[in-house]
User: Which sequence fits this backbone?
């Protein structure tokens, strides 16, 4: 990502946390550098000493949060569990994050800004969808090695599963449609995704 270099210092984490609060509250476009500096309790000069502009700060926050979510999710999973057991858990974690306030805010902002700033879209994809794909791919490969699944294109299958878990819900919530995706409905969507995935890839 050319020209998006950041520098760390004593108040770096303070700036990141303050910016996270402002971005979630006001969105990317509504968040001003003055508001971020005020929330972070630093001067604008200090903020700019770490981040050359607002979009760089947003990219940093988005990528950190998505990686944190992925690491926490992976650390709590039993990779030796069969796919019928683990995939429902993975799917539920995925849909819960995507429908969270932060998940929706990051998705909306990345889509809105990627036309003007392509690096925002690339960083979002690398830190979000691509990271999820790679983590699911790693697990599916262990299932293949155990003879539980039969898959020719494992990364494609990983993306298919993630998309099946997001069907209907993510777009409805992104566009503020009047939809109620409560716990029971989320479980129903994920269970359907797992059934379709296993029907396609279960080893004979």
Assistant:
């Amino acid at each position: 990502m050319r020209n998006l270099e950041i520098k760390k210092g004593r108040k770096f984490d303070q700036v990141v946390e303050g910016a996270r609060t402002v971005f979630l509250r006001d969105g990317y476009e509504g968040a001003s550098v003055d508001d971020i500096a005020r929330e972070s309790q630093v001067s604008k000069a200090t903020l700019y000493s770490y981040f050359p502009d607002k979009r760089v700060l947003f990219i940093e926050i988005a990528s950190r949060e998505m990686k944190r979510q992925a690491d926490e999710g992976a650390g709590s999973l039993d990779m030796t569990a069969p796919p019928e057991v683990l995939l429902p858990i993975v799917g539920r974690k995925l849909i819960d994050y995507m429908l969270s306030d932060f998940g929706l805010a990051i998705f909306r902002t990345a889509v809105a800004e990627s036309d003007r700033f392509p690096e925002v879209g690339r960083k979002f994809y690398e830190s979000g969808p691509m990271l999820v794909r790679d983590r699911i791919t790693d697990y599916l490969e262990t299932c293949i090695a155990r003879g539980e699944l039969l898959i020719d294109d494992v990364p494609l299958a990983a993306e298919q599963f993630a998309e099946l878990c997001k069907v209907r819900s993510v777009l409805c919530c992104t566009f503020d449609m009047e939809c109620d995706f409560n716990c029971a409905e989320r479980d129903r969507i994920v269970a359907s995704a797992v059934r379709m995935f296993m029907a396609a890839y279960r080893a004979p």
